[in-house]
Amino acid sequence: MPLRILVVGAGVSGISVARGLLRDGHDVTVFDQRPQVQAGGGAVTIWSNGATVLRQLGVDMDGAGQLLSSVRVSTSHRRRLATLDVAAMVNRLGAPVRMVARRVLLERLLSGFPVERIRCEARAVNVSRTPTGAQVEFADGSHAQGDLLIGADGLHSMVRHAVGEPDAQPTGWCSWQGLVTLADAVDDPHVAQVIIGEHGNLGLWPAGGADLQWWFDLPWSRDFVRPEHPIDEIRSGFAGWSAGVDRVLAALTDDHLAHSPYPHFRHRLPRPGRGALTLLGDAAHTMPPTLAQGTNQALLDTMVLCRALSELPAGRVDVPGALRWYEKTRRRKVAAVSRVASLQVCHGESVLRPASLLSDRLHTWALTTFLHCTSHHRLATEISRKLAVAVLPSGTSRPALGVTP
C-alpha cells in the first residue's frame, strides 16, 4: 500500500531513502532548511556495501570519482604495516570501491529525481506522533502530516532531539581535512594511503582526476583554541612522514583549512522508536570516520528500511511494526561498525609492530569478512535479485524511481 512519507533532511541520506521509497511506489516529500540542496565537505569512500545499495537505487556511478585497487598502511617512521587488496575485496563482495566527491555523489543521486518532491527553506522545529502517523512543524508556522516520518537530518538532528535521544558525544579527536586539486600528489591514483603515528594519523585518498582527499587527525577537546596559522601546526606534526605527504603539505595553505577542524563524534544508538517516527544515517548513528563507513551505513539503512516497508501486508498497515523491524535489524550490525570505528588508531611503533608481522592476505580477509558480516549480505543479494527481474509485462524496465515519467 502506498504510504505518505515525510523525510527531514535533503543530504545524501535523505535523498537516498527518498529515492528508494519513490522507486517502491510511495508518496515521498523531502524537507530541508537550506535554500537549495547542496553537499558540503570533501570526498567520501563508497565501499562495496554502499555501492550495492546505490546500484539497487538505480544510481549510475560510472566515471564518478576514483576506483581503488589497494590501501597502503604504514607508520610515521615509514614502516610498512599492510597493503589491503581492495581488488580481492571487490571480487568477494561483488561491487567496486571508489572515492568520490560528496557533491558528485549527491548529483548522481539527484539525477532523475523529481525536484518537486523536495521543499527547501523548510526548517523543521518539531515532530510528533499523530493517531494516524506523524507530523512535522516548521519555523514559518506551517506543518505537514504523513503516515510516517524519517529523520535524516544529520549529526545535530532536530528529529533525534525531538524524540528524546541524547546528543552525540566527542571522542577526543578531530580531522583537519579537505579536497584539493593537485597533480602528481600520489604515485598511483588507484592506491590510497594511510599513515599512523603515535600522536596523530593521516590519509591521502585519490578522488578522481587530480582531486585528492586529505586528512590529518589530531587530539581535540571542547576547550580547543584554533591556532592563528593552523597549516604551520599541521606541517610541524606531519612533515617527513612520506614524500607524498610533504608534497601535499607544501601545497596547502590556511585557506584550505578554513572550515577545519571537524571534531569526531559518536552517537549512542537510539532506543527502539515509538509510533511512526524513525531515524536514519548520521541522525541515528554518527560515528568517527576511521572506517569511512558513515555514508555506507546510511545507504544500508535505506536498503533495510525500504525492505521493511515493502513487506507490509496488503490491506493492513502496521507502519510502527515495520519501523521497529528496521531498527532491530540494523541495530546489532551498525553497533559493531560504530564500536570498531571508535577504536584508538594512533599508537607508537612498538605497539604497531605486531601488525606488520601479519600477511596482507590476512589483513584483507579480516576487513572483507567484517564488511560482509555487517552489511546484510544475504538480504542485499535477495533484494538485488528481485529488482533485476522486476520488469513490466512488455519487457521494458519499470519507470525510474517508481513514478510515472
Automatic annotation (TrEMBL):
<keyword id="KW-0285">Flavoprotein</keyword>
<dbReference type="GO" id="GO:0071949">
    <property type="term" value="F:FAD binding"/>
</dbReference>
<dbReference type="Pfam" id="PF01494">
    <property type="entry name" value="FAD_binding_3"/>
</dbReference>
<keyword id="KW-0560">Oxidoreductase</keyword>
<protein>
    <submittedName>
        <fullName>2-polyprenyl-6-methoxyphenol hydroxylase</fullName>
    </submittedName>
</protein>
<keyword id="KW-0274">FAD</keyword>
<dbReference type="InterPro" id="IPR036188">
    <property type="entry name" value="FAD/NAD-bd_sf"/>
</dbReference>
<feature type="domain" description="FAD-binding">
    <location>
        <begin position="5"/>
        <end position="338"/>
    </location>
</feature>
<dbReference type="GO" id="GO:0004497">
    <property type="term" value="F:monooxygenase activity"/>
</dbReference>
<dbReference type="InterPro" id="IPR002938">
    <property type="entry name" value="FAD-bd"/>
</dbReference>
<dbReference type="InterPro" id="IPR050493">
    <property type="entry name" value="FAD-dep_Monooxygenase_BioMet"/>
</dbReference>
<keyword id="KW-0503">Monooxygenase</keyword>
